[in-house]
Hints:
By secondary structure, this protein is of the alpha+beta class. Strand 8 and strand 9 (320-326) form a beta hairpin.
Amino acid sequence: MTRTLFRWTLRLLLLAVMLATAAGGLAYYLAARSLPDYDATHRIAGAPGTVEIVRDRFAVPHITGDTDAAVLFGLGFAHAQDRLWQMTMARRVAQGRLAELFGPEQVSTDHLLRALDLYGAAAAAARVQRPEVIAELQAYADGVNAYVDLVREQALGRGAPEFFLFEPTIATWTPTDSIAVIKVMALQLTDQAQVEALRARLSLRLPPERLADILPEPPGAVIAPPDYAGTLGVPRWTSAALPPDGAVLPPRGRAGASNAFAAAADRAAAGAPLLATDPHLSLTAPGPFFLAQLDLETGPVIGATLPGVPGVLLGRNERFAWGLTSSYLDDQDIFIERLADDDPQAYLTPDGTALFETRDAVINVAGAPAETRQLRWSRHGPVIPPPHFGVDAITPQGHVAALAWTALDAQDRTIEGALALMRVQSLDDLAALRPLFHSPSFNLVAADAEGIAQYAIGAAPARQTTQAGQGRIPSAGWVAENDWQGYLDPLGNPGLANPGSGIVVNTNNRTTQADFPQHWTFDWGDSHRIARAQRLLNAREFHTLDSFIEVQLDIVSPVARAVLPLIAQELWYQDSASADTAAFRQRQQVLEALAVWSGEMDQHSFEPLVFSAWLRQLQRRLVLDELGPLTSAFATPDPLFLERVFRDVDGAAAWCDIAQSERVEPCQEIARQALDAALAELTETYGARVEAWRWGAAHVALHRHPVLGHQPALGWLTNIEQETPGGDTTLLRGQTAGGGDQPYRNIHASVFRAVIDFADPEASVYITSTGQSGHVLSRHYDDLSVLWRRGEYVSMSMDPAIARGAAVGITRIAP
Length: 815
């Protein structure tokens, strides 16, 4: 009996293994069917001409065609081959159709997206584009649709593995869809409304001087460093000589960041301009950008494209190169609308009452009945459904909050500017293009063979000097003085060309000293990286491609050099025989190491981990008693806030005092407590041996698949994880999560890097954060990420013979 039971148990186990293997094999077979064939010839009715797509060894497409329309058709085809799921997801975000796939938990997000009506704004913008622009958008869309048709006709695995798990229907791609993808990017590159709402909530808890501490204004404007005046290199720290004092909505502080800088010919060793650019965004798998080269009638152009959008957004052609950084323009305002007493569908205006524009939205929900939401728009913009943007906490009863935002303007011609930018032949051409850019707003850093420039591009709201909130906090919607008066002159946006220093640089730092309302914004994205960039760029008189790469990959934290001497000034070498405990010895060990630490956020060192944990614990202790539930909004340490507190600027040391205690706690006591808490936290996580701690083990870059990455098994397959150097304020930026069970995880970093040398343009280098393919079974899903982690690059030549020499496939398309 026992033997029989054993035999049947073994047989059942073997059967289960066989079935699991068969199921896994079938799943692999079906998923593998969607791997694109890069080496194929297609006859496609409606193709605008002959197209050839040469995929180099990293699957970067080099696209040639009879006309520009044929080339853009080829780009659409290539994007669909590799990023079809990513493109359709971006479209779903714009349309507010996530719950259709992912169920009831996405209904609130869809409600917000339907209220903003990004897709409606994109459709309105499509109607004002010139016929030539629509023709190019349509050529690209035809390329996307041609590949989707091939998938259907030849049963190519539904186009991407994700379509086996979710609704496989793929709607026809249109010009409106491409504009909508840019609208989604605009949403992810601004946090101005969230900051307005947060400042309003803080103003209810804090006096004005303490509000100025926790949301400090950065120091003066920087566009170009001063003229070169000799080496300004930073000496290595020693113990004897410390440095002188010195969802779909992005969380506050993560609305995009970036570095871009350029050197004129007289600051370059080879006598020709240099340009570097590396935009910082949330890490995803696949990454947001896709490398490509397009052989246009005006000449070849090469660089980073955005799947869903025709054209190169950052890169170079034969005569012109450009990079982009987030400008942090205050492009959003929240208006509090007062409802009419006798009609909840009406609201007050300066001229009496007006009816909301209303529409019912039916939100289809996977696995649940459809839900209906009423959408409303005031004269300022869409009414924001709570709790989004944090408006529920600041909207009085009998009122609603509406959003004014430049991206919702029907006259937006940003797509025309993007298509024209890759055809620019000199800096002189930019004057005609700058007014085309509306939203999102960027700092454009550019170079040609003769010079360099930096201009802020984007529509800046014209506010009246009497506007009550100055864009800092929500304003009363029924007061005429608070209304926007159109937009400022785009040619008056901050910028300059060919400064005397021969260098332009931006790290999302302040770029203008103009007073409100020409101020651009009160909330800039950086105040420390710019100081480090200036120092490195002026540390040598002449730059090279290698020196620009060195700046781009710099991992020294300027915050460590500025803040550490302040918070540790009374803790260095505090020996005490009576305190000879393990915890005391550990504290002294790390303090002695930090005293001689250079501030380099090296992944193999423990000092960056101790410093980061210390600052995190310190900020939490400083704000917890005053901010209460708002503490989570400040989980990532703010260096400017910490400097104000420990320098006691305008009485900011008051943050050190614990309000609930009777005595007044000094800041150095809080600093010591925070260090002890940090060491206890790290000991619990990594063990008692400080020498065994490593920054890289905590600062792991997580390139998460936006959909599958949250599932345990599928996340293991689709996510890309790598130990990385850098930190929140290094030029090689790796912004930490701040909270959760992995607070030091790298979640926001450079997703594209390029360094371009006009002395030898073909030697220019590029890299993206993951790989070209969005297909997890492709070897090109993560092949570039290995180089990205190591700070390496690939070359992308405009010479078609070089691309052919190591091609992994050539796709030929003919009508």
